[in-house]
Design goal:
- This protein has a single domain (about 45-180), classed as Chorismate lyase.
- The protein contains six helices and nine strands, in the order E-E-H-E-H-E-E-H-H-E-H-E-E-E-H.
- It has helices spanning about 30-35, 55-60, 95-100, 120-125, 145-150, 190-195, and strands spanning about 5-10, 15-20, 40-50, 75-80, 85-95, 130-140, 155-165, 170-180, 185.
- The strands form two sheets. A six-stranded antiparallel sheet has the order 3-4-5-8-7-6, sandwiched between helices. A three-stranded antiparallel sheet has the order 2-1-9, with no helix packed on it.
- The termini are close together.
- This is UTRA domain-containing protein.
- It comes from Nonomuraea ferruginea.
- Pfam families: UTRA.
Length: about 200
């Protein structure tokens, strides 16, 4: 399965960075290996906490109406950086606790399956991710996003709303935020017979 390609657009004369965001279905996150392949130094900061899903996230996850103040999702917020470029991508992921609570994958970056990506982690608890969906839009960065990405107030960002599905069940949704001025998004994938075998 192929998908989002973050293309870093540098200053004149700099090489353009092209990396495949999605690898084969069972692969983990490509961020670390992709950066290392280029001889660059990447870093990943994250925090995970439980919360009650806000209305928009509830709708995207297909959760029932909130019951009191119970926490029902694990939210993990990531900041991707490289030593030479600094911060360049935010990713916030939400997973239903009804699926993961009490399992080895409750914390996406903890335990035996830490950092191995949504499909592989979900497969470990019997949920086979067989589809993903992404929707791309552009808007002005929030104050918090601009500060974390070290971009100016009023800068435009591209937002990729992602979902991972196991059959009809949404097992994870995420918002990926990148600066529009320095990032190009390109999608590719197999067609015909190649699509049937990928």
């Amino acid at each position: 399965m192929r998908g989002l390609l973050p293309v870093r657009v540098g200053e004149a004369g700099q090489q353009v960075l092209v990396r495949s965001w999605f690898r084969e279905r069972q692969d983990g996150s490509p961020f670390g290996p992709a950066i290392e392949e280029q001889g660059r130094h990447g870093s990943l900061e994250y925090t995970s906490d439980t919360m009650q899903a806000p209305p928009e996230i509830r709708e995207r996850l297909g959760l029932a109406e909130a019951d009191g103040h119970w926490h029902d999702v694990m939210r993990t917020a990531y900041l991707f950086s490289t030593k030479d470029e600094g911060p360049w991508m935010l990713l916030t992921s939400w997973e239903p606790l009804a699926l993961t609570k009490g399992t080895p994958i409750a914390f996406p970056e903890g335990g035996e399956f830490a950092g191995q990506g949504v499909p592989r982690r979900m497969a470990s608890i019997g949920l086979m991710v067989d589809a993903w969906d992404e929707r791309v839009s552009a808007r002005v960065a929030t104050h918090k996003e601009a500060k974390r990405l070290d971009i100016g107030a009023g800068s435009v960002v591209m937002v990729i709303q992602r979902a991972h599905l196991a059959g009809d069940r949404v097992v994870e949704v995420a918002d990926i935020v990148v600066p529009a001025e320095s990032t190009m998004l390109a999608y590719n994938g197999p067609v015909g017979d190649a699509a049937a075998t990928s």
